[in-house]
Amino acid sequence: MANCRGHETEHETEKEKEEKIPFGTREFWLYILYSLCFTCFAGMMSGLTVGYNGLNQIELNAIENAEVTPEDDIYEEIQANKKLIKKIKPILAKKHLLLVTLLLATAVAMAALPIFLDALVPAVVAIILSTTAVLVFGEVLPQVSRVILRPFASDRTNSKSARGWPHLLGF
C-alpha cells in the first residue's frame, strides 16, 4: 500500500490483513449473517415503500365498501381484502410518516452493510458488494416485483388472481 508520499509501506498492508476476520470463524459467519439480514431488511423496507405508495386510495375505498353476498364467487376474496384494508388504513393515514420511516430504515440498513463487510473483505470489495446489494435488493427487485405482480393485484374480475396484495411484502 502506498502512503501519502507514494512510498510502499509493508506495515500498513500487514495491519490491514490482521484486521480482517479470518474465514470460517464464528465471528466471520456472524458478520455474514448480519450482512444478509441487513440486505434482506433493506429490501423488505424498500418493497414496503413501493407497495404502500402504490396503493390506490379510491380502489381501497371501493373494495372496502363493496357489497357482496356469500353466494358470489368473489365473496371470500372481498372479505379477506376488507380485513387487510382495515389493517392498513391507519398506517396509510399518516403517509408522510410512513414514507420517512421506511426510507430511514432502508438507509440505516444499507449504511451498516459496508461496515460489516469491511471487516471481512478489502474495503474496495466491501464497497462494490454493498453497492450491488443496495441496487439489486433495494431498488431493482422491489420495482420489478411491483411491475410483475401489479396486474394480479389490480385485476378484481378473476377471484383467483388477487390474494391480498403480495407487493405489500416486497414480493
Assign a percent range to the helix content.
over 70%
Low-pLDDT segments: 155-165, 167-171
Straight-line distance between termini: 44 Å
Largest sheet: none
Q: What percent of residues are in strands?
A: under 5%
Instruction: Tell me the overall shape.
Output: elongated
Topology pattern, helix = H, strand = E = HHHHHH
Question: How many DSSP-defined strands?
Answer: 0
Give the oligomeric state of the chains in this entry, treating copies of one chain as homo and distinct chains as hetero: single chain
Mean pLDDT: 80
Q: Roughly how many Å is the radius of gyration? A: 23 Å
Which secondary-structure class do the elements indicate? mainly alpha
Number of helices: 6
Describe it for me?
This protein has 6 helices and no strands. By secondary structure, the protein is mainly α. Helix 5 runs antiparallel to helix 6. It starts with 9 loop residues before the first helix and ends in a 17-residue tail after the last helix. Residues 155-165 and 167-171 have low confidence and may be disordered.
